[in-house]
Design a protein that fits this description.
Winged helix domain protein, elongated, three-stranded antiparallel β-sheet, mainly alpha, Arc Repressor Mutant, subunit A, WH_DNA-bd_sf, UCP037373_trxn_reg, WH-like_DNA-bd_sf, 5 helices
């Protein structure tokens, strides 16, 4: 079965990229936001990403605890086990973490503006 990102998925990806989420992470999250577990190959097919890009995108998402990775042995062919990914937390919780990061970054920027103001006053 071929899985493709729908219009909503592309909008999710685009909006994530607008808040400085990397393209490959944004596309990967957009694939998983519907709650289905997908193989690395399904994510590749849906996004147009190459296998190494999917692996690079998933590493930090797994490290943050946002995505769960499972290895499954292939039954009919040889080679590496297939990797399957799913969101490990609700997408709204992920958005809260992005929101928190943005607020912290903006606080740092405001502190710089205040320091600059103090220099010229």
């Amino acid at each position: 079965m071929s899985t493709f990102i729908d219009e909503k998925g592309y909008e999710v990806s685009s909006l994530l990229q607008s808040i400085n989420v990397s393209r490959i992470e944004a596309l990967s999250i957009a694939c998983l936001v519907n709650g289905r577990e997908l193989s690395s190959q399904e994510i590749e097919n849906a996004t147009g990403l190459r296998q190494p890009e999917v692996s690079v995108a998933m590493r930090p998402l797994c490290e943050r605890g946002w995505v769960e990775e499972k290895n499954e042995k292939r039954t009919k062919c040889r080679g590496r086990p297939a990797k399957y990914y799913s969101l490990n937390m609700d997408f709204t919780e992920i958005l809260k973490e992005y929101e928190s990061d943005i607020l912290k970054e903006n606080e740092k920027r405001l502190e710089v503006v205040k320091s600059l103001r103090n220099l010229v006053d």
